[in-house]
Every structure is written in C-alpha cells, then in structure tokens.
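Category: protein sequence paired with discrete backbone structure
Discipline: computational structural biology
Format: plain text, a pair of labelled lines
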Amino acid sequence: MEVTGKIIRLNRLCAGDFHLYSRLATNADVMKYITGKGLTLAEAEDRFLKALALTESNPGAGFFTVRNIPNGDFIGIAKLVQLDDRQHEVGYMLLPEFWSQGFATELVKCLLDIARDNRYKGELTGIVDPANPASIRVLTKFGFQLFETGLMDGLAAAYYKLKIDK
C-alpha cells in the first residue's frame, strides 16, 4: 500500500526497513519526546519487530515509512494502528533535519485520509509529550482536542482525540 500526499509518500513498513527505523529510534533528539532517550540497537530492533507485527495485523493501516516526494529522501515513520473496535492511534517520528517544514502536517493529513478511506468509525488518538508544542499544534490543526493528561511508560503524556464518526 502506498499513499501519496502533496510532498510525501507513505509505504507500509516491511522487514527490510529496520535500517531506516533504527535511524530514528537510536536518535536522542527524535526519541526525547517518545521514550525520553535514544534507544540501543537491541531496543530499537525489539520495537521495530512489534511495529512490523502491528502492521501485518492492521490491513490498510499500520506503520509506514515516509519519504519526501521530490528526491525520495527518507524522512520518518508514521503510524495508524487499531487500539480497539472504535479507537485508532496516529503517531509519527521525523528525522530532525525535516522538522518545521510542514512534513508532520502533511503526514497527519495522509493518515486521516487512510482512516476515512477505510471508513474508520470512532476516535483517532494522538499521544504527545506535553513539552512538545510542535506536535500539539499539528494535531490541533486537524481538530484533535485534549482529552486527558497523565503518564505513559513513566513519561508525561497528553492524549488528543478526534471523532471520526462523520
């Protein structure tokens, strides 16, 4: 499955993508808002295998590699995964050199398009670190609203939700 936006292309994650995934997961700047620190290669591989399994069990969704259309550069990973019958989670990780260039906005739009094309009903959830105002702005741009705050894996988390029953 390939999804194309104006400036990015999403392809479903496959077994050969670990070298791309690990560039993000071992990067301390990228992981600062996700796990609090960069992962070891072993930790990254463990998370990658879980992401791959979720992708294989989520027809029409899952984890995606994200590439810049003009030159094909790898810029990040996006996810749209089912949590339960009426809940799906959106998320993303981008390499720092691609921050603040509109890529996160474009990829969330692509994930919303996938959800609508697959006729998802219920809610989409985006979980962000409250200290990450850029990601909060991206979600609220699309109508996500703060639902609750708390801890996730011992780190501060803000849960943003968007109803998609329309």
Q: What stands out?
A: The mean pLDDT is 92.
